[in-house]
Design brief:
Chain lengths: 127, 502, 460
C-alpha cells in the first residue's frame, strides 16, 4: 500500500490530514506493518488537549507496544472510539477507517514541519 | 482440518488439548476426602460469624484415575529438558539431576515449619550456610542472601542495597544506567526501586561503549547494571575499566549473573569490581525451571554492602551450631520466611556433587560447546559478533529474511518439527531477527550435531521451500496459534455454566 | 564429568573444529588480572552415593513437624498434600520444562495453568487470576503497587493485623517511593479497628489520596475481619480494597469478592506445596476484569490454532518486563509455576467436597482445641471474635519456657507472637503480645492428640 499524497507524515509514523482547522490523525501503513496485528489501543478522550511530538496514546500488538505521538497541537474534538471493537481496521485500512483522533489545531503551521508522502517514503527506506 | 496421513481414525482423541479438568467427572466423584470430624461441630456458619459460603466454589469433582489420565495427557503435550535440547540463550537449560529432586523431598526437609525452634532445624540451617559459603567463594563476594525467589527479585534486592548505602552516606541518587542489550527485568527492577533508567548504546563489537558510559555517569547515578558475559555472548574485556569508571562516579556496579555458567571457576564477578551480583539457581545451578518457576535469585555483595542485606540470614555460630540473624542495618525483608528452601536444597546438592573441579569443567565445556555450534552454523547464518564466543552466541536470521522472506520466527517453529526447542529469539533487541543459542555443558556431542544438522536443514528449506517453513510447525500437539485473537478477546479462565454475568 | 556427557576424545574433536588447541584459548578474552589461577576453595565433588548419604544426614539433623505434634501456623500451614500431587509434579515434562513461550510444545503447562487460574477465580470470586507470584507477601506488595497504578494515587493504608512479615516486606518495597505506606494504627479485639476518631480508618481516608486499603482476613491472629465495613469506607473514598486471604478456608467461607474486593491475594502453600522450611510457596493474585491490564505476572489465555483446535497461550504480554521494560506492571519474570501446578492438582484431588471438608474439619478442631486450652486454666482468650482454624490465646507464664518444655515432650506449641513481632509490630499492646501464642489446627490433628496436648499443658 502506498502512502497517499493527500496528507502529511511525521517521523513517528503518524499521518495527518487537515480539513479547515480540524486535523485527522492515524498511523501510516508502514507503522501498521511493523506493528503486526493490533490487539489493543488506548486513545485519549474528547476535550483532552494534545501537543505536537507528545504521546496521545498507546497501541499494542501481541509482542510490542508503541507510543502514539501527535504530529499537531490542539484540542481533541473527536475520537474513533469504534476502533476498540474493530482493531483489525488499523491494519487493513490505516489511512481511512483506521483514523484515530480529530484535533482542532492551534497552529496549522505545524503541518509545514511534517513530511510529504514522497519524503516519508524516502525516510522509511533509509531507516 | 489437516489430513492425517498416519491412518489415525478421525474419531481418535486429538493430540492437542482435550477436556478441561472441569469438564471431567461427576458431582459425586471423589479422590481425596477430608478425615471424619472427631470433635463436636456446631454450625460452621455460626463459628465464622455468618460468613459461610452459600454456594460451593466451582472446583472439579473427579476420581483419581481421571486426574492421572488428565495430567498424563497434559504432560504428553509438553517438551522438557528430558525430552530434548533447549538451546535457549541466557537460560542455561541444563540437565536437572534426580538426586537433587530426591534430596528436596526428604521428609526432614519438606516437613520443616519455618518457625520451628532453630535447634530443630540445624540440618536445614547448615545447608543454607553451606550454599551461602559456596556462592561467596564462586562469586568472590562475601555477603550472601538466599531470600530472593528469582533473578529479577535478586536484581531488585541488590538495587535496594545500593539505595541503603547511598542514603547512609547522605548521597541519595536517582538513576541507573543499563546497556541497550539488557534483559527487560533490569529496567523493570530499576523502576520498582523508584529510580530512572538511562540506556546507553553498545558499540559495534556488541560491547559496552565505554565513552558513552563515562558520559552518562554523573552524581545522580546510583548504579550501572551489566551482564558479563553479555547478552550477545561475549566477555567484555573492558570490565575493569568499566567498574573503575562506575566507582569513580560514586556509583555501584551490578552484575546480572544470568550468564555465570560461562565463568564458573574461571573468573569471579567480585574480582571484576562488581559490588553485587544475583545468581539464578535455576540456570547455573541446575535447579529445574518447572514450567516457569520456582527458581531462586540469591544476591552476593561486598563486605561494605553486607550490613544492608535483607534478613533474617542463616549464620554459623563460632561456638558451633547454626541459627538465624539480622544484618546490622538490614533493609528489611523482600519476602516471607528465608528463601525458596526447596530450590536451595537442590542447588546445594549440585555444588557438593561437582566441587571446584566439576564447576570449572562446566564452564569449559559450556564455552566449548557454544563455539562448536557457532562454527557449524556460521556459514549458513549471519553471525554478527566475535571470532569466538563464551557459553552462548547470537546469530541472525537476517539473510534468510532478505533472500527468501523466511523469518527467525518461522525457522524457530520449524525447529519444533525437528524435535528441538527453539533458541531464544528476538533478543537482544540489538540484533535483527536474533537467535541466541546456548547449548550448555550437559548436551552430548550427538545432540549438538543433531541440532546443527537441523538448523542447516532448515536453512536449506528456507531457500528451497520457504512456504513450508512459514507454515511450521506441523507435528506438534497444536500448530501455530491465533495469539492476536487471544490478546484481543481474552479468555483467561473457565466459567462454570451457571455463572452469572461478570 | 558428572553431568557432562562430552567424552575426552570428543572434546579433542570439538577443539579441532573450533580451531583452538585448548579450551584455555577461549578464555583468553578474560583479562589476566581477573582470571583465576587457582581452583575455587570448595569441598571436592562427591559421587551420588556419598552425596545421598550426606543430604540424608542433613535432613536427619532436623526434627520435622511429622516427628512432632504441631500446632504451628502463622502463615505456613501443615495441610495434607494429596499423593497425586507429587506423582504429577515429578513428571519430567512438567518440572524440567521451560517457561511456555513456545506454546506449540507447552500445551501441558499452559492448560494446567489455565485450569489453576480458573480454580483461583472460583475460590476468590474474582474475574481473573495470574499464573502465580513468589509468595503471599510479595503478591501483597504487588497488589499495593497495582492499586497505585489503577487509581493514580500514591498512599496505601495497611491494616496492622496483617502478618508482620508481610508488613515488613511492604515497607521494604515502599522505600522506593512507588507507594507511600501508612498503617492505621489501631487494633481492637484482635481486629482492624473501625472506630471513629482521628486515628480510625475513615479519618485516614479523608483527602482522597489513598490508592488502596490492604487488609488480611483471616488476619495474622486468625480472626475474621469485618470486610463489609472496611470495603464501604475504602470505596467511599475511591480507594481499592485489597484482601489477603487463606485459600483453604475459601473452600467453605465467603470469598472476598462478596465484599467488593478489587484485588485478592494469598499464600497458596497450603494447597499442595507443603511447608519445606518456608519456600517455595505460592503467591496467589486475582483481580477484576476492568483492571486486568494492570495485573502483574504471566497470564494464560485460551485460543485456537490454525486448524481450529483448542489451544492455550501466554497472553496480554505487553504488561510484562520483556516488552514494557521500565514501564512494565512488575519486574517479575520467573514465577512459581510448578507450585501453581501443585495447587491445581491438589484442588482437583480434593474437589469441592474435599476442600470444604478440610476447611470444616480444621475449623472444628481449632475451636475444640481453643476450648480445651482455656479449660486448662493456663490460657485465656484475649478476645472473642470469629476465627477460622487459627487463634491466639494469652498464656499466664513465660511463653518461651512453655514452648521449650512442650517441645521436649514432642509438641510444637504454637507461635510466639512476641517473637514474630520483634521484626514488625502488629499494634497489639506490648504486654499482651508477650503472652500471646498463636495456635493453628489443621485436618492432620486428631482429637486424641489435642486431648493429650491439653493434658500436658495442664501439668505445666
Amino acid at each position: 500500500m502506498a502512502h497517499p499524497s493527500d496528507r502529511k507524515y511525521s517521523k513517528d509514523h503518524e499521518w495527518v490530514s487537515l480539513d479547515g482547522d480540524v486535523a485527522t490523525v492515524g498511523i501510516s501503513d508502514f507503522a501498521q506493518s511493523q506493528l503486526g496485528d493490533v490487539v489493543f489501543i488506548e486513545l485519549p478522550e474528547e476535550g483532552d488537549s494534545v501537543s505536537a511530538d507528545e504521546q496521545f496514546g498507546d497501541i499494542e500488538s501481541v509482542k510490542s507496544v508503541s507510543e502514539l505521538v501527535s504530529p499537531v497541537s490542539g484540542e481533541i474534538v473527536e475520537v474513533n472510539s469504534g476502533l476498540v471493537d474493530t482493531l483489525e481496521t488499523v491494519n487493513t485500512d490505516p489511512h481511512g477507517a483506521g483514523w484515530m483522533i480529530k484535533v482542532r489545531v492551534s497552529d496549522a503551521g505545524e503541518l509545514d514541519e511534517l513530511l510529504t508522502a514522497e519524503e516519508y517514503d524516502a525516510f522509511i527506506t533509509e531507516g | 482440518m489437516t489430513e492425517r496421513l498416519d491412518h489415525t481414525p478421525s474419531v481418535a482423541p486429538v493430540r492437542g488439548p482435550r477436556s478441561l479438568i472441569f469438564e471431567l467427572g461427576a458431582p459425586e466423584s471423589r479422590c481425596v476426602e477430608a478425615p471424619a470430624i472427631d470433635v463436636p461441630l456446631a454450625s460452621v456458619d455460626a463459628l465464622l460469624g455468618g460468613r459461610a459460603r452459600t454456594e460451593p466454589p466451582a472446583l472439579p469433582n473427579v476420581t483419581e484415575l481421571e486426574i492421572m489420565r488428565h495430567y498424563a495427557h497434559l504432560a504428553s503435550m509438553n517438551f522438557g529438558v528430558d525430552s530434548g535440547m533447549y538451546p535457549l540463550g541466557s537460560c542455561t537449560m541444563k540437565y536437572n539431576p534426580r538426586v537433587n529432586e530426591d534430596a528436596a523431598r526428604l521428609p526432614g526437609f519438606t516437613g520443616l515449619h519455618p518457625y520451628q525452634p532453630e535447634e530443630t532445624a540445624q540440618g536445614a540451617l547448615e545447608l543454607m550456610v553451606g550454599l551461602s559459603d559456596a556462592l561467596a567463594e564462586i562469586s568472590g563476594l562475601p555477603g550472601i542472601t538466599l531470600q530472593p525467589a528469582a533473578g529479577a527479585h535478586g536484581e531488585l534486592t541488590a538495587l535496594m542495597l545500593f539505595r541503603a548505602a547511598h542514603t547512609a552516606a547522605g548521597d541519595p541518587r536517582k538513576k541507573v544506567i543499563v546497556p541497550d542489550t539488557a534483559h527487560g527485568t533490569n529496567p523493570a527492577s530499576v523502576a520498582m526501586c523508584g529510580w530512572e533508567v538511562v540506556t546507553i548504546p553498545s558499540d559495534a563489537r556488541g560491547l559496552v561503549d565505554v565513552k558513552a558510559l563515562k558520559a552518562a555517569l554523573d552524581g545522580d547515578v546510583a548504579a550501572f547494571m551489566l551482564t558479563n558475559p553479555n547478552t550477545v555472548g561475549l566477555f567484555d574485556p573492558q570490565i575493569l575499566e568499566i567498574t573503575e569508571a562506575v566507582h569513580a562516579a560514586g556509583a555501584f556496579a551490578y552484575c546480572d549473573g544470568a550468564n555465570l555458567n560461562a565463568i564458573l571457576g574461571k573468573a569471579r564477578p567480585g574480582d571484576m569490581g562488581f559490588d553485587a551480583l544475583h545468581i539464578n539457581l535455576h540456570k547455573t545451578f541446575s535447579t529445574p525451571h518447572g514450567g516457569g518457576g520456582p527458581g531462586a535469585g540469591p544476591v552476593c555483595a561486598t563486605a561494605e554492602l553486607a550490613p544492608y542485606l535483607p534478613g533474617p540470614l542463616p549464620v554459623a555460630f563460632e561456638a558451633g551450631g547454626f541459627g538465624l540473624g539480622w544484618p546490622e542495618y538490614s533493609i528489611g525483608r523482600v519476602r516471607s520466611f528465608y528463601g525458596n528452601f526447596g530450590v536451595i536444597v537442590r542447588a546445594y546438592a549440585y555444588v557438593r556433587a561437582l566441587g571446584a573441579q566439576g564447576l570449572t569443567e562446566v564452564a569449559e565445556q559450556a564455552v566449548l560447546s557454544a563455539n562448536y555450534l557457532k562454527v557449524r552454523l556460521q556459514d549458513a547464518f549471519d553471525v554478527p559478533y566475535g571470532a569466538t564466543c563464551m557459553h552462548e552466541f547470537v546469530m541472525s536470521g537476517g539473510r534468510q529474511k532478505r533472500e527468501h522472506g523466511v523469518r527467525t520466527l518461522d525457522m524457530a517453529k520449524r525447529l519444533l518439527d525437528y524435535g528441538f526447542h527453539p533458541p531464544t529469539v528476538y533478543f537482544p533487541l540489538l540484533v535483527d531477527e536474533a537467535l541466541m543459542i546456548e547449548p550448555t555443558e550437559t548436551e552430548p556431542l550427538a545432540a549438538l550435531d543433531a541440532f546443527a544438522d537441523a538448523m542447516l536443514a532448515i536453512a536449506r528449506e528456507a531457500a528451497d521451500d520457504p512456504e513450508l517453513v512459514k507454515g511450521a510447525p506441523y507435528t506438534t500437539p497444536v500448530r501455530r496459534l491465533d495469539e492476536a485473537g487471544a490478546a484481543r478477546n481474552p479468555d483467561l479462565r473457565w466459567t462454570p455454566p451457571s455463572h452469572g454475568i461478570r | 564429568m558428572r553431568y557432562t556427557p562430552v567424552a575426552c576424545e570428543q572434546r579433542e574433536a570439538m577443539l579441532r573444529a573450533v580451531g583452538v588447541s585448548s579450551v584455555d584459548e577461549l578464555f583468553e578474552v578474560v583479562p589476566a588480572e581477573v582470571r583465576l589461577t587457582a581452583p575455587l576453595d570448595l569441598p571436592d565433588g562427591i559421587g551420588e552415593i556419598e552425596l545421598a548419604s550426606h543430604l540424608s544426614a542433613l535432613a536427619s539433623a532436623n526434627t520435622p513437624a511429622q516427628g512432632l505434634v504441631s500446632f504451628l501456623g502463622a502463615g505456613c500451614y501443615d495441610h495434607y498434600v494429596p499423593s497425586v500431587v507429587d506423582h504429577v509434579l515429578t513428571k519430567p515434562e512438567f518440572f524440567t520444562a521451560y517457561t511456555p513461550y513456545q506454546p506449540e510444545v507447552s500445551q501441558g503447562t499452559l492448560q494446567a495453568i489455565y485450569e489453576y487460574q480458573s480454580m483461583i477465580c472460583a475460590l476468590t470470586g474474582m474475574d481473573v487470576a495470574n499464573a502465580s507470584m513468589y509468595d503471599g507477601a510479595t503478591a501483597f506488595v504487588e497488589a499495593a503497587f497495582m492499586a497505585a497504578r489503577v487509581t493514580k494515587r500514591h498512599r496505601v493504608l495497611c491494616s496492622p493485623t496483617v502478618h508482620p512479615e508481610w508488613q515488613n516486606t511492604l515497607a521494604t518495597y515502599a522505600e522506593s517511593g512507588v507507594v507511600e505506606l501508612a498503617t492505621f494504627p489501631a487494633v481492637e479485639d484482635g481486629l482492624t479497628s473501625l472506630s471513629d476518631g482521628a486515628r480510625g480508618l475513615a479519618a485516614q481516608l479523608v483527602g482522597g489520596d489513598v490508592a488502596a486499603v490492604l487488609v488480611q482476613s483471616p488476619n495474622f491472629f486468625g480472626n475474621l475481619e469485618d470486610l463489609a465495613a472496611i470495603s464501604r469506607v475504602a470505596h467511599e473514598s475511591g480507594a481499592l480494597l485489597v484482601v489477603a486471604t487463606d485459600p483453604v478456608l475459601l473452600g467453605i467461607m465467603e470469598p472476598p469478592s462478596a465484599y467488593g474486593a478489587d484485588i485478592v491475594v494469598g499464600e497458596g502453600q497450603g494447597l499442595g506445596s507443603g511447608m519445606s522450611y518456608g519456600g517455595p510457596g505460592l503467591g496467589i493474585f486475582a483481580c477484576r476484569t476492568a483492571n486486568v491490564r494492570q495485573m502483574p505476572g504471566r497470564i494464560v489465555g485460551r485460543t485456537v490454532d490454525v486448524d481450529g483446535n483448542r489451544a492455550f497461550v501466554l497472553t496480554l504480554s505487553t504488561r510484562e518486563q520483556h516488552i514494557r521494560r521500565e514501564k512494565a506492571t512488575s519486574n517479575i519474570c520467573s514465577n512459581h509455576a510448578l507450585n501453581a501446578l501443585a495447587a491445581g492438582v491438589a484442588l482437583a484431588a480434593l474437589g469441592q467436597e474435599g476442600l470444604a471438608g478440610i476447611a470444616r474439619t480444621s475449623i472444628a478442631k481449632a475451636h475444640y482445641l481453643r476450648e480445651r486450652l482455656i479449660a486448662t486454666g493456663r490460657f485465656s482468650a484475649p478476645w472473642d471474635v470469629p476465627f477460622g482454624y487459627e487463634f491466639a490465646l494469652s498464656y499466664d507464664g513465660d511463653v518461651g519456657e512453655m514452648q521449650d518444655e512442650l517441645l521436649s515432650r514432642g509438641y510444637l506449641a504454637g507461635a510466639s507472637v512476641a517473637d514474630i513481632e520483634a521484626e514488625w509490630p502488629t499494634g497489639v499492646d506490648e504486654q499482651l503480645a508477650e503472652r500471646l501464642v498463636l495456635f493453628a489446627v489443621t485436618e492432620k490433628r486428631t482429637r486424641a492428640e489435642m486431648d493429650a496436648f491439653a493434658t500436658e499443658v495442664a501439668s505445666l
